[in-house]
Amino acid sequence: MQPDLALSSIDFQNEKGNIRYGLSSIKGVSTKTFQSMIDFRSDTMSNKFDIFLAAKQAKLGIGVLSSLIQAGILSSFGSNRPRMVLEAQSFNKLSDREKRVMSELGEEYDHDILNIISKEVLERKAVAGDGKPLMSEKRQVTFMAHYAKYKKVYSLNSQHPRFAEWFFEKSCLGYSYSHSLRSVFLNKSENLMNCEESLEAENNEGVKLVGIVESSRKATSKNGNKYYNFKIVDETAKVSALFFEDNEVPKKKDIVIVSGKKAEGDTVFMDSIKILTDKIYMKLSDLK
Hints:
Layout: E1 13-15, E2 18-20, H1 31-43, H2 48-57, H3 62-70, H4 81-92, H5 96-103, H6 113-123, H7 137-159, H8 161-173, H9 181-184, H10 195-199, E3 206-220, E4 226-233, E5 238-243, E6 255-262, E7 267-275
Parallel strand pairs: 5-7
Antiparallel strand pairs: 1-2, 3-4, 3-6, 4-5, 6-7
Helix pairs in contact: 1-2, 3-4, 4-7
């Protein structure tokens, strides 16, 4: 079972006959940080605001938290991961006072900070118990400037949620429990293989696979022909793809569908290569 900040322990554990992923096995975050959040959870962690505050207290950066949310670590609180990332980023940009006064409205709005800001701040111009606006007009301008940047990330990743889930699960956990790359893009072309299946094909057998360009190198064969050597990867294996055309050359991290014939070893001679236009924002850990 996937890791969940509301349910997981530091180590893998048996949960009603299933194995729940342990927090200590998540990449890029120390066990000490997660232990701090678990200690906070034992006191109170019943909603998203509690999670966001616990992450701040544990010194878990908002960029890393955003990547973990996109990997499904808040599945107990909803299934729309890109939107929860936007919620976390927006909450993080509030002042301590704004967090406090808006948290008082949390239960009424199912602890959705975006709805609170939309309804209470922007629409109703609500005031807090201290007689001051929840957010001053000057603060609104500053906040919305940050929000606009985060909204772009949300818009991009919400267009291709299955790909975003696959990418961040694999990046944070080492594997994707929701999708394979092949299943994400199966609607783009029939008879798609994953990289491992293409390597298991007989020599000279036709193959069509989907993967991500890990690297590319231009080279010259012994008879003087120019070609490209691409390393194509997915969660199953890595393929060397040789291409003797240069009218459509993919770049590193491009997602491609490769058609051609299996050659010796881990090599595929490509007849065609199609660059898919599905894009997501992959560097949530860079966001501040």
